[in-house]
């Protein structure tokens, strides 16, 4: 049987994302959902860093800088989207964030449609 990484925290985050989606609906820009999710994460007393910087190293030199939308409890990266559908490039983006930060778990949360779409990615 496979162990789920950060199971309770994952359920809590997805529940909060659903709460944001249910309250705001769809059609806003990504930043609105990001800010709303931060409000709920703070309400739940979860440590969350918005616009968390990620440095990409190669041969001991920084070769790139990226920004993860939200890092929760220094354990889970959240990448928020407002797109028709989560596709491979979105998954690759989060997997690269996980590799660069040595974080084990990430979620893509897509707020564009009538129903919240999310993808769980494990490194």
Automatic annotation (TrEMBL):
Official protein name in the record: GxxExxY protein
InterPro entries, alphabetized: GxxExxY (IPR026350)
NCBIfam families: GxxExxY (TIGR04256)
Species for this entry: Orenia marismortui
